[in-house]
Amino acid sequence: MANLAIPTVDFSPFFIDDDDQDGKNNAKEIIKQACSDYGFFQVVNHGIPRDLIKRALKLSQTFFAFPDEEKLKYSPGSAAPLPAGYNKQPEHSADKNEYLLMFPPQSTFNVLPTNPPEFREVLEELFTYFARTGEVIERILNDCLGLPPNFLKEYNNDRSWDFMAALRYFPATETENNGISEHEDGNCITFVIQDEVGGLEVRKDGDWIPVIPAQGTIVVNIGDVIQVLSNNKFKSATHRVVRSKERSRHSFAFFYNLQGDKWVEPLPQFSEEIGEAPKYRGFLYKDYQTLRMRNKTHPPSKPEDVIHISHYAIST
């Protein structure tokens, strides 16, 4: 039987006690093992104020409780890499949720609500904290992979494509409970805050592990970009959301992303320099993101036709 829990990492050595080298080393070991196995872990003492998280979830509940005509005032504009603003999954989609998506606070793509009045300010503050935590985890992954100092930071130095979504999942019906279908994330690193309803599950060794909500905890998972760069040394996490019958589920997901014009391919440190063949052909990140968006806007009739990172895998 697999160990049906995901590891929890104390981040206080990175945010509170910078001199705690033993604490940092212990955290890195846990993260390295988790990323090698299945790409998921949780963090506490991560520097994001608990009160801010509570306010964000509360205001999100208020916003999504508004009538559709109010929410649709914040529908996406054009030209953004992803549809920034309010969106609802189409009726034919297997995913049953609505969401509000934003880019960095200074982005001209954003279409943020003015109602409830404090929501925009709280969203922008939460985004800023998430971005800082992303930089810390990026440095940790850099060390765990044995890359030169600041390698990932210099490779991924444009934060303009980072995005955050506030999500509401509708209650399950008698016949189906899918919130988001089984998938991996296409970006670098994802953070999730979920309310007490829960529903997030991660797959490990063929088992689905429920991620039990805990106040002050952020769930972290590795995305496809890190899996490709590391030539499968680190795993992109497979996960899903299962809906509850009793009530809606509210959550926030932050995507520490990659700018669209970046070229993605296995790094030489994990391929030719160690005598291993690259497991993926290179690609422009924006091309992959376009394919993934098409999965959502035009869902394939057969599950095997959904585009995953395996689309770029090199057959051996």
UniProtKB/TrEMBL annotation:
Name of the featured protein: Flavonol synthase/flavanone 3-hydroxylase
Pfam name, any one: DIOX_N
A GO molecular-function annotation: metal ion binding
Gene3D superfamilies, A to Z: B-lactam Antibiotic, Isopenicillin N Synthase, Chain (2.60.120.330)
A Gene Ontology BP annotation from the UniProt entry: coumarin biosynthetic process
Gene source species: Abeliophyllum distichum
Family recorded in the similarity comment: Belongs to the iron/ascorbate-dependent oxidoreductase family.
Keywords per UniProt: Iron, Metal-binding, Oxidoreductase
UniProt domain Fe2OG dioxygenase: residue ranges: 160-258
InterPro entries, per the entry: DIOX_N, IPNS-like_FE2OG_OXY, IPNS-like_sf, Iron_ascorbate_oxido_reductase, Oxoglu/Fe-dep_dioxygenase_dom
PROSITE patterns: FE2OG_OXY
Entry annotated with the keyword Translocase: no
